[in-house]
Write a structure and sequence with these properties.
Blueprint lengths: L3 H12 L17 H15 L2 H15 L3 H11 L3 E7 L2 E6 L8 E5 L11 E6 L10 E9 L2 E10 L3 E11 L5 E12 L5 E15 L5 E14 L4 E11 L2 E6 L2 E6 L10
Antiparallel strand pairs: 1-2, 2-3, 3-4, 4-5, 5-6, 6-7, 7-8, 8-9, 9-10, 10-11, 11-12, 12-13
Helix pairs in contact: 1-2, 3-4
Length: 268
């Protein structure tokens, strides 16, 4: 028997033109299905930024190098598919030249500093229309000390939701991953309106796979799903057990789900 939130989620799901994974008819009868869908929409937003985090970390290493020769060495190591352009006035453009992601670009204003020192800030701009990002995105990153970078709250949208996000990132010394904490809110573009508010309750840990993609392998989320019109809210708790399994707790019921995210989001 469907709850009101489940009906709202299913309406948004059927109206929406994009989602990350394949929904099977038999899955919709599982008791935690609404929680699973709420997690999937939330995870889509988080995952769309993971490559951006990786690129910013690597460009910081590039920018730190004191000579052109050393920058060329980092370029060859990390940016085989990216053209790095010095625009002047402390502004740089990273343009992905891979044929599949030919329109993906990042513009970075470094303010003449790297991101290794406490208090240093960068401003990042990404034009609309790249991958799943449908609006221009502007964000600020600040080093808060102790190898922690803070991404200030900012707004964006994809095909299904308008959303806001705010995060803290800690990169591993190896450069092969990061931990992510923070929160965000999504509200559906389609009606009936569904609002998803999430908090990362245990840090999300991402590690790079054999194809150099950052994959979130562990961590936990609390998601509040609200039927905006009826003002009804339900809780979902999602534990990422591995890169292809999640545990969903919804309405007091717990189920394990197979979960694989297919990488056709913007590759920065």
């Amino acid at each position: 028997m469907y709850t009101r939130i489940k009906k709202t989620i299913l309406c948004v799901l059927f109206i929406g033109v994009w989602s990350s994974c394949t929904y099977k008819e038999e899955d919709s009868h599982r008791i935690t299905y609404s929680g699973y869908v709420a997690f999937d929409y939330t995870y889509n937003v988080i995952n769309d930024y993971t490559r951006l985090f990786k690129s910013i970390c690597r460009f910081n290493e590039y920018h730190l190098q004191p000579t052109a020769e050393k920058r060329d060495s980092v370029d060859r190591l990390y940016f085989q598919d990216t053209k790095i352009i010095n625009e002047g006035n402390n502004t740089w453009t990273l343009r992905n030249i891979n044929s599949y992601y030919s329109n993906s670009t990042i513009t970075i204003n470094t303010h003449g500093n790297d991101l290794y020192e406490d208090g240093n800030r960068w401003n990042i701009s990404i034009p609309g229309g790249d991958g799943n990002l449908s609006k221009i995105i502007d964000l600020e990153i600040e080093n808060k000390g102790n190898d922690l970078w803070h991404i200030a709250k900012h707004n964006n949208s994809n095909a299904d939701f308008d959303y806001s996000v705010e995060w803290d990132i800690h990169f591993y010394a190896s450069g092969k991953g990061f931990t992510l904490e923070g929160n965000g809110a999504l509200i559906s573009i389609a009606s009936p309106k569904l609002k998803l508010e999430y908090t990362i309750t245990n840090p999300l840990e991402a590690h790079t796979d054999n194809y150099n993609n950052p994959i979130i392998q562990t961590g936990s989320l609390k998601i509040l799903a609200t039927d905006v019109n009826k003002k009804i809210t339900e809780d979902t708790f999602a534990d990422i057990i591995s890169d292809n399994h999640i545990e969903i707790t919804y309405n007091g019921h717990v189920e394990i789900w197979d979960y694989n995210y297919y990488y056709y989001s913007a590759a920065y």
